[in-house]
Amino acid sequence: MEHTAVKDLLNATSIGTSAIAKGWVRTKRGNKNVAFIALNDGSTIHNLQLVVDPNRFSEDLLKSISTGACIRAKGLVVESKGSGQATEMQVEELLVYGEADPETYPLQKKGHTLEFLREIAHLRPRTNTFGAVLRIRHHLAFAIHKFFNERGFFYLHSPIITGSDAEGAGEMFHVTNFDLDKIPHTDEGKIDYSQDFFGKETNLTVSGQLEGELGAMALGKIYTFGPTFRAENSNTPRHLAEFWMIEPEMAFYEISDNMDLAEEMLKYLIRYALDTCYDDISFLNNMYDKELLARLQSVVEQPFRRLTYTEAVGILEPCNQQFEFKVEWGTDLQKEHENFLVDHFKGPVILTDYPTQIKSFYMKQNEDGKTVRAMDVLFPWIGEIIGGSQREEHYDKLLARVREIGIAEESLWWYLETRKFGACPHSGFGLGFERLVLFVTGMNNIRDVIPFPRTPKNAEF
Ligand code: 4AD
Ligand code: MG
């Protein structure tokens, strides 16, 4: 390879070497005698300072180097006299790959709002903020595979196109190759899916869990990590229509094992990010949220508080006057209640044993006949970061629940069969990847932690 990453050129060990750097110009300043170009190539949040003697290069060449331009520089790496960096490059050769017209290039030196940057999502990775977020996102994704691999889990690729609704919430995007102007109908006037591509009604998956359970019934411990899709019209800073989910599923795990794994995993991932992405997290801490580093540190250090839904309602109900949505046993908890609990216990909370009617059909039914062995992990800043449960492994109980809710049994025959052939106690959960990235970056809006967000009325780029 011809060039060296800026990250490596900034290391004092590169002093005295002749090197080539390639990247995008962040700023250019100087006078008749010397010009300074700040070069960034995405390998780090820091820029390499290029020191240029204007007399050695043509005026046209120097003029074509402006903020946003892509260039190649060759020169000697020396100790920097300026503060803030260990090294700089004394440039001997300059080449411009691509200019960026200063009249029209939208990312000028002045700070831009995050809202504006969403409108130029094709260019925002070139800002310090999005460079940091995207590097952190990468390292977290890598750490997830590392965590599970180290513990004997297998990565199972669950399908993106499915014929079932794993969460039973009906919030699915249809998949079809029908000509939408000529959709075939049956004699009864219904859409004739038998003529569609898959010969049945299909949709984008809302969760890989059901297939994950099949994997766990053979491989013992699996995890999925893929995109999931929800057509819920939630225009909030915590919801995306397309988000990535990590779903471990483990044979022979009871709900308490499930909680232990969730807590261990979250702490591992945050610690990994602190160790690996310190410069990027520090930048975000200083730029947006002065409490970010302290918050991450505190979550890693303290045990997560575990309590039942019923106990949580006991804490919330007496405070109903301060809530917009009043709480009583049986109601679903809202963001304001989750925040209250996290504040109350000054850290992450795991809630278990929710009322049956507010949770999904596959959760293990408790002896009391009114709760299921669900678990939600609630985080400061975020609210629900993980949802999971022990699964109902008894065929009759599961089928009864499917019928009670009115889920199309035919679409789940294969799932139900796992309860007929070698069923066992098992558990799993789903971690929303973007909610984890939100927590680790301290960003405010989930649209700012995924390269190209998909939300209601927004699928540009
Ligand atoms: O609680 P959810 O709906 O659970 C499931 O899908 C289960 N099948 C998981 C399992 O047991 N295997 O979603 C899991 C997590 C949530 O806690 C949240 O972090 C995230 O996925 N999530 C979303 N993230 C962004 N945008 C959305 N619209 C999300 N919906 C859920
Ligand atoms: Mg949930």
Write up what this structure looks like.
The chain is an alpha+beta fold and 461 residues long. It is built from 13 helices and 16 strands. It has helices spanning 6-9, 59-63, 114-119, 128-150, 209-219, 255-276, 278-287, 292-301, 309-316, 335-344, 395-405, 413-417, 433-441; strands at residues 18-30, 35-40, 48-52, 70-79, 87-98, 154-155, 161-162, 174-175, 202-204, 221-229, 242-251, 305-308, 349-355, 371-379, 383-390, 426-432. The strands form three sheets. It has an eight-stranded mixed β-sheet. A five-stranded mixed β-barrel has the order 1-2-3-5-4. A hairpin with a 4-residue loop joins β1 (18-30) and β2. α4 (128-150) packs across α13 (433-441). The longest helix is centred in the first third of the chain and has 23 residues, at 128-150. The radius of gyration is 27 Å and the shape is elongated. The relative contact order is 0.11. The model has no long low-confidence stretch (mean pLDDT 96). Magnesium ion is lined by residues 384, 387.
